[in-house]
Amino acid sequence: MSWERVYQLVTRIPRGRVATYGQLARALRLSGGARAVGYAMAACPGGRGIPWHRVVGANGCLLIAEPHAALQRRLLESEGVPLEAGKVSLERFGWSPARPPAARTRRRPAKRR
DNA sequence: CATCTGACGACCG
DNA sequence: GCGGTCGCCAGAT
To answer: What are the residue boundaries of the structural domains of chain A, listed by start?
Structure first.
């Protein structure tokens, strides 16, 4: 399969939200697992409006190397997705590919802090 | 056609 | 908590 599928899904990630490699991989049933998505993103073509910066590691951390990580961080923050200790709070900004939750901008599901 | 090269994540010691 | 191992795909040279 071509990576097109991955790109399509990534494009579906709403602004202000992020998805993890593993999550995308499972959503697409990629045999290669998260790795496959990683490979796909590495080959991600530019100039197509693919929000590649909305894809983060399983832990919500940025995986790519500098200087791209800095850019990703900047882009995310410009979308309202803050990085805490170098990581995105998947609890708050994680997006489910098949199950987009209602906008919980400030509503806490059961998590209290 | 053979090889190399990357944006992962789960598991184990 | 940290570092090493393993499974994996497609495109470029």
So the answer is: 4-93
| A101 Cβ contacts chain C strand, under 7 Å | no
Q: Which residues contact A17 (CB under 8 A, 6 or more apart)?
A: A54, A81, A93, A94, A95
Q: Where does A4-93 sit in CATH, by number?
A: 1.10.10.10
Strand C contacted by A2 CB (< 7 A): yes
**C chain positions with any atom within 7 Å of a protein CB:** 7-11
The per-residue pLDDT for A65 is: 87
pLDDT along chain A (113 residues), means of 10: 90 95 93 93 90 95 90 94 93 81 54 39
Q: Can you give the distance from the CA of residue A40 to the C1' of nucleotide B4 in angstroms?
A: 17
